Every structure is written in C-alpha cells, then in structure tokens.
Amino acid sequence: MPKRAILVVDLQNEYWPGGNYPLQGIEAAAANAARVMDHARAKGDLVVNIRHEMPGGPIFVPGSPGVDINPAVAPQGDEPVITKNFPNSFRDTELKDLLDRNGVEEVVVVGAMSHMCIDATTRGANDLGYRTITVHDACATRDVEFQGATTTAPQVQAAFMHALAFLYGEVVSTDELLGR
User: Fold this and answer.
1) How many domains does the chain have?
2) What's the CATH number where 61 sits?
3) Does the pTM exceed 0.70?
4) CA pair distance 32, 64, nearest whole angstrom
5) Contact (Cβ atoms closer than 8 angstroms) between residue 109 and residue 9
6) Looking at residue 1, what is its pLDDT?
7) Angle subtended at Cα 5 by Cα 138 and Cα 110, rounded to the nearest 5 degrees
8) How many C-alpha atoms does 174 have within 13 Å on its Cβ side?
C-alpha cells in the first residue's frame, strides 16, 4: 500500500454557523473528516491540517476567530499545519515538500469548500503525480449563484465530485474508505 497522507483542508470556524461564510452540512462533513483523521492516526498515516488566510479579504481574516481550525477536527500532537492564501493548497506553500519528505504517494482529501479549495487541491495533487482519493461526505459546500441562477449545495456537491471522479482520482464515502 502506498504511503498516505490525509489533507484536512480549511475546516475552519469561518464555515460553521456563526462564522462569516457557513456551509451546508459542515458539522456532518467535519464529523466524517474526524473519523478519517482518527483512522489515519491509528494506522500511522500523516495528517496534514491546512488553513486558509485571506489578508485584506472579507473572510478568513488573519488573526480573526474565523481562521481557527474548528475543534471538531483539531490537530493533535505535532501534526503539521499549513497556512495557504490560495484555493490550491500546494500553491506557494511547503505542502509538496512536506509530502515528498515523508515519501507520500497517495493523498486523501477532506474539508471545504468542495467547489473551491477541495477541487483545486485535489486537481493540484493529481497534477503533481499523487494518487488522490476525495471523501465526498467529509466535504461541504454551499448554494452558489451565477448570473441570477442558484445552484443548490447538493447539486454543487454532485457536480464537483463527479468531475473529480471522472479524471482526478477516486471519490468515496467515509465508510468506503474506512472499510478498506
């Protein structure tokens, strides 16, 4: 089995109720992400926590409570925490170097938002040669609007997970991943 890392992307307070950009189903997604993280820790897989900051932006303001990783998926021990400023967790961060130093060949992606940072990070990992698995029920999104048309969160989720499964790796449920 290839050396694996779990990438826990942007499960920060900003996305919870009371945050500035709440997502539909964030609590359920985080609970599944926590299950994936606990399973990985028990197996000795690398767990990498990734947090977004948006200097000068309206959300993820550095130093605000919104940028804190939610306690439901808090890092443990000396687990690395990577701060990023772009949707792709590899862009201008030390993530690739960290994975390569640890001999990682496969990444499991969980977190938020499915249509933005999960999509960008999964595609980025695939483009860099990592085998990718996205855990769809450990990811969350929200309704989006474009040119007056609203697409519901479940539709957004389905469309993005389909696209990732089509050419960018496996997309599985938490139970499927843990049952392997």
Assistant:
1) 1
2) 3.40.50.850
3) yes
4) 26
5) yes
6) 61
7) 15
8) 18
Active-site option among 7, 36, 37, 117? 117
pLDDT of residue 162: 98
Quick check: is 117 catalytic?
A: yes
The Cβ of residue 93 has, within 10 Å, a number of other Cβ atoms equal to 16
Over the range 135-163, which residues count as b (16 or more CB within 10 Å of their CB) and which as e? bbbbbbbbeeeeeeeebebeebbeebbee
Query: What per-residue confidence (pLDDT) applies to 178?
Result: 98
Structure tokens at 142: 């929200």
CA distances from 31 to 22, 26, 27, 135, 161 (A): 16, 9, 6, 12, 19
Domain carrying residue 56: 4-178
CA dihedral 160, 24, 26, 106 (to 10 degrees): 0
Q: Kindly list the averaged pLDDT for each block of 10 residues, start to end, along the chain of length 180.
A: 91 97 98 98 97 95 97 97 98 98 98 98 98 98 97 98 97 97
Q: Are 85 and 59 in contact (CB under 8 A)?
A: no
Strand 4-9 and strand 46-52: the pairing is parallel
